[in-house]
Amino acid sequence: MTRDEIRNQLLAALGEIAPEVELPSIDPRRRLRQQVDLDSADWLNFLVAVHDKLGVDIPDAEAGRLHTLEQIVDYCEGHGVA
Question: In angstroms, rounded to a whole number, what is the distance separating the alpha carbons of residues 34 and 32?
């Protein structure tokens, strides 16, 4: 799977959690939760959706270090998404 395909899957997951978000306006290098105003429950639902769509588990310790869409793409790319 290419980086663009991973990014598109992540954006699709985000769109399911926060349908009001204009996905094309997401800046992949800015803090994601602040851009789309995700609370803790929404963030957890997003991480579950990442697992469902890409098969990647993001442990709590890692999730706390992933702030931008690009960081999440990097993590997925390095943890089994082919």
Answer: 5
Quickly list DSSP for the chain: --HHHHHHHHHHHHHHH-TTS-GGG--TTSBHHHHHT--HHHHHHHHHHHHHHH-----HHHHTT--BHHHHHHHHHHTT--
Which tens digits make up the pLDDT trace of 40-68?
A: 999 999 999 999 999 999 998 899 999 99
What is the architecture of the domain spanning 3-19+30-78? Orthogonal Bundle (1.10)
Q: Is the pTM value of this prediction over 0.85?
A: yes
